[in-house]
Design brief:
mainly alpha, two-stranded antiparallel sheet, 7 strands, about 55% helix, binds glycine
């Protein structure tokens, strides 16, 4: 980065730090999902909700940045509350990585807490137990009512695999990594298209493992290009490369990255789906923040011009967020605005905690101060 870019990172991270110093005090006892009238809100009261690790993760990043004990206490409180989820089989699913990597595993990495390691390994064991040996994939969600999801895998799972890599690194038992690698290999073939775009959901036959069909999922429709899914793939394959050094994962991450970069609009603001209709022009800031994290990692892996392309794309995404889609009002609790969970949901463009998490993580990466969670 040049001096101007470094200054921008320092100033922007400083603004986030000042805001989070206040927000953390107001929200110390919460596990937020979104905001209502600027106030953090969990919306569902469900301790099993898949995003319930991100607030703890933000607090660990702030602890790393500042060394202030208050952040550590809030993160530990988030982690302990998640024990109610860990003890409820029906609430566990492939999102165990999102729940326990930013909480228990982050805690263990920083403090060597045995209780935290135990939580992380229990979550990893359950995640590995979702593996379908015929289809070589990790089952994503549990069934919703009569909706049968036994054969469903989703691109988002690439971001849960690091829980398995960690479990193998920690225990010396390769089984967890073997499951992760097998799922990643399947995802490379079944989810990533020739042009670098990715499917959200693929259904496999439960007994033969054959591909049944793909679904548009949270994007616009079948064959579309849900931007958060592109981001999960971009960052997820990069992380699988970091853990395995398998060049095929790096090549896949770069293919997705190049597709993503080619589709960034002039203003740097990312739509919910790169193939959505021109109107309504719904945006999703979370996709931009997650992609920026992946692009920064790729920029560290590639020297010269290619590395610069990745870094400049990340800076463009983050600059657009900071200028147009960040709430810098310290009296309100969210950082990012215009986040969207799914294209066909009734609600669009609101605040979502994982957008804030990845925005902070990206700034921390650029400042060289990040706690590596994945
Ligand atoms: N992992 C679910 C989502 O990205 O909305």
């Amino acid at each position: 980065m040049n001096e101007e870019q470094k200054k921008w990172v320092e100033d922007t991270l400083g603004k986030a730090e000042r805001k989070l110093a206040k927000v953390s005090e107001r929200s110390a006892a919460k596990i937020p999902y979104s905001t209502a009238q600027g106030v953090h809100d969990d919306r569902s009261g469900d301790i099993g909700w898949w995003t319930n690790g991100f607030w703890g993760g933000m607090m660990w990043q702030m602890y790393r940045l500042t060394g202030e004990e208050k952040y550590r206490r809030i993160a530990e409180d988030n982690e302990k509350k998640l024990d109610a989820c860990l003890m409820d089989y029906g609430k566990l699913d492939h999102d165990n990585g999102f729940r326990w990597l930013p909480t228990a595993v982050a805690d263990y990495r920083l403090t060597k807490s045995e209780a935290s390691k135990n939580r992380g390994l229990l979550a990893a064991g359950n995640l590995a137990g979702r593996y379908n040996n015929k289809g070589c994939f990790i089952r994503a969600w549990n069934d919703w009512g009569d909706d049968d999801h036994r054969g469903w895998a989703i691109i988002d799972c690439m971001m849960n695999l690091p829980l398995l890599y960690w479990a193998s690194e920690e225990t010396g038992d390769p089984r967890f990594r073997q499951v992760a690698v097998s799922h990643a290999d399947t995802a490379m073939k079944a989810f990533v298209r020739g042009d670098g775009s990715v499917n959200h959901i693929v259904e496999f036959d439960l007994e033969t493992g054959g591909k049944v069909k793909s679904y548009g999922g949270q994007g616009f429709g079948t064959g579309s290009s849900w931007t958060r899914g592109q981001s999960w793939g971009l960052y997820g394959f990069t992380i699988s490369y970091l853990h395995t050094k398998d060049e095929a994962y790096l090549e896949t991450a770069e293919r997705i990255a190049n597709y993503f970069i080619a589709n960034i609009p002039e203003d740097g603001l990312i739509p919910v789906d790169f193939r959505q209709p021109r109107e309504p022009a719904y945006q999703d800031s979370t996709a931009a923040a997650i992609a920026a994290c992946g692009l920064i990692e790729l920029s560290r892996l590639r020297e010269g011009r290619q590395g610069e392309v990745y870094l400049n794309a990340a800076l463009k995404l983050l600059g657009a967020l900071a200028e147009h889609s960040t709430n810098w009002n310290e009296a309100e609790d969210n950082l990012l605005e215009r986040c969207t969970a799914a294209y066909h949901d009734p609600e669009h463009e609101f605040s979502i905690i994982y957008g804030d998490y990845y925005f902070l993580e990206a700034l921390m990466k650029l400042a060289g101060k990040e706690l590596f969670i994945w």
